[in-house]
Amino acid sequence: MTTIYYEKDGDLGALDGQKVAVVGYGNQGRPWALNLRDSGLAPKVCVRNDETREKALDDGFEVAELEAASQADVACLLIPDDVIPNLPITRPATGLTIVASGYTPAFGRLAVAGDIGMVAPRMLGPEVRNCYTEGTGFISAVGVETDATGTALARTLAIARGIGGLREGAIEMTPRQEAILDLAVEQILSPALTHVNTSFISAMLGQGIPLEAVMAELFLSGEVERNYGMLRSEGFVSQLEHHSPASQYGQLSRRGRYDALDYAPIMSEIVASIASGAFADEWDAEGAAGYPKLKELKQQHAGPGVKTMEDAVRARLGPAVAPANRQDD
Ligand code: NDP
């Protein structure tokens, strides 16, 4: 059975007398540093840039260069995954290195001495802070890649507790499992949903339905987002009762209509390239070349043309319609 850790499993005492460094002060770095401090720890923030250093100083942290993290007992590496292998940081044999994503240990890109643990919030950085201050929490993935000292799990759970990551349960996963799942959501689920949405748009435009109305159904109205919220807060069975009987019948009676479409071979092919490390190699090569393909893809799928079209619709519908920028007055 899958192990799920809760607050009672994380003892901050496992870090008594230990120096904690937070490396990076971005999406995750700042919320982690603030949450750890509010949990009673005294993290030092290690950054490279003057502007970021000023921000951390303004927040009242002791700030140091990146290299200073080499002396910390626990170093939380909260910088982009492709940058982590090139950090000017070494780790002591008794140290613990924490990553917020399984990517670098999973694909052989984190060669450091000592313990390696993972605390991966299933939450965007600013929300890691908001959830903590609101007293709620967020689900995390927690795991140990290397236990050189016999204290890796206890110390990893202490960090997880310190950032508020045990309040809603932390699922034990290896960094490899977490990395595969994370990349699969991006590379398998997201493109598949995009494909379904595109087919749906075509079907609706074919019926003469305005694009604006279709976009409202898909995301602009916020209804889908709220339905997913109910799925989370009430579960599928209870939330179904909020839909009309005709809606319930329509959803359930047509449920198997797409079963004949076999997505599995494509999904297996993509997940195999993730699991073998081929994607990580491809991404490294892309980075080394200055991201030419990423730039081209963004131009194609998320370029100025798409933005102009989106902005025009968003200016007339949804949360962007503030009196100040309303175009139809
Ligand atoms: P960010 O892109 O927000 O990281 C920015 C920080 O990284 C800044 O402090 C920046 O420093 C520093 N940085 C960037 N490049 C370098 C470099 N070459 N050398 C030194 N420092 C550098 O990262 P995230 O917070 O988004 O991601 C951090 C980790 O958290 C990753 O492992 C990610 O996978 C994981 N994660 C992220 C989530 C998210 O919500 N974004 C969700 C869950 C996990 P400076 O300001 O000085 O330029």
Quick synopsis:
This protein is of the alpha/beta class. It has helices at 29-38, 50-58, 103-106, 125-134, 152-162, 175-205, 211-220, 223-234, 236-240, 245-253, 264-275, 278-288, 292-302, 304-314; strands at 4-5, 20-23, 44-46, 62-64, 74-77, 96-99, 115-121, 140-146, 170-172.
Furnish the topology, listing elements before pairings.
Blueprint: E1 4-5, E2 20-23, H1 29-38, E3 44-46, H2 50-58, E4 62-64, E5 74-77, E6 96-99, H3 103-106, E7 115-121, H4 125-134, E8 140-146, H5 152-162, E9 170-172, H6 175-205, H7 211-220, H8 223-234, H9 236-240, H10 245-253, H11 264-275, H12 278-288, H13 292-302, H14 304-314
Parallel strand pairs: 2-3, 2-5, 3-4, 5-6, 6-7, 8-9
Antiparallel strand pairs: 1-9, 7-8
The structure holds NADPH dihydro-nicotinamide-adenine-dinucleotide phosphate.
NADPH dihydro-nicotinamide-adenine-dinucleotide phosphate is lined by residues 24-29, 47-49, 52, 66, 78-81, 83, 99-101, 120-121, 124-125.
Folded structure, characterized:
The protein has 329 residues and is of the alpha/beta class. It has two domains: 4-173, Rossmann fold (3-Layer(aba) Sandwich), CATH 3.40.50; 188-214 and 265-326, no CATH class. Helix content is 47%, strand content 11%. The protein has helices at residues 29-38, 50-58, 103-106, 125-134, 152-162, 175-205, 211-220, 223-234, 236-240, 245-253, 264-275, 278-288, 292-302, 304-314, and strands spanning 4-5, 20-23, 44-46, 62-64, 74-77, 96-99, 115-121, 140-146, 170-172. Helix 6 packs antiparallel against helix 11. The longest helix has 31 residues, at 175-205. The chain starts with a strand and ends in a 15-residue tail after the last helix. The mean pLDDT is 95. The protein binds NADPH dihydro-nicotinamide-adenine-dinucleotide phosphate (NDP). NADPH dihydro-nicotinamide-adenine-dinucleotide phosphate (NDP) binds next to strand 7.
